[in-house]
Write a structure and sequence with these properties.
By secondary structure, the chain is of the alpha/beta class. The chain contains ten helices and six strands. The protein has one domain: Lambda Exonuclease, Chain A (Alpha-Beta Complex), CATH 3.90.320.10. The protein binds iron/sulfur cluster (SF4).
Amino acid sequence: MASIPLHTLSQSSLQDYADCPRRFQLRYLEHLHYPAVESEPALENEKHQQEGEYFHRLVQQHLIGIPAEQVGKLANTDNLSRWWENYNNANLPIIDYAKHAELTLSAPLGSFRLVAKYDLIAIVPGGKAIIFDWKTYRKRPKNEWLAPRWQTRVYRALLVQAGAHLNDNKPFAPEQIEMIYWFADFPTEPATFPYNATQFKRDWDALTKLARELESASDYPKTDDRQKCTFCPYRGYCDRGVRAGDVADAEAEMEAEELFDVNFEQIGEIAF
Ligand code: SF4
């Protein structure tokens, strides 16, 4: 299949490239259908993923002003009702904040555009900006696993780079920004990542370098870390086994969770 030139980069494509250049090539350049993950129990995993998507939609509807009682009626499975209750009881500390739900920001990055869609950015203009990301993971990942993920780095850096219109047309200082992963099944254990100018410079320099590398890349090797193949849907293309393997350790478990993570492009509309 012919490669199609890539125009945008996202935290997912950058993470795929970091995890395995071959996966990046298959998914974003050759646009091979990203097959369902074949881990067992398949139906339960698929259901969990769909419920995760639905939960995002419920929270978004609530954030744009639909009353909680009305939204809550749609939380009609065990998982959804537990997540919704946890969300409702969480009292997120953003009552006086301007709330921007499902907001997309983008900025040029080399010859690409870097794009991110945020679950929620809560802002006090001239004050703090908190990025929220809802996660319906079945395990609470360690902060050390989350900190270097491209999502954590891209979301904060891009808000500095492209968020001035949300802050009285003044770019946010990195120190104004923090990112919170809020876990629907671990509501009292959010993971919080503040930001500072040194981290922003580190991230933007790394992104610029990566964009340069991708502009001239012609070789997309398979990862040496075979653990990354364990749940990868492209195993069949890479001669890395046909069936998903057993989860070997905590990190592999998180890799698997991430494959069931919510992909915004897949989220449909809910009729109210
Ligand atoms: S199966 Fe392994 S080598 Fe192939 S794309 Fe997936 S992670 Fe990369």
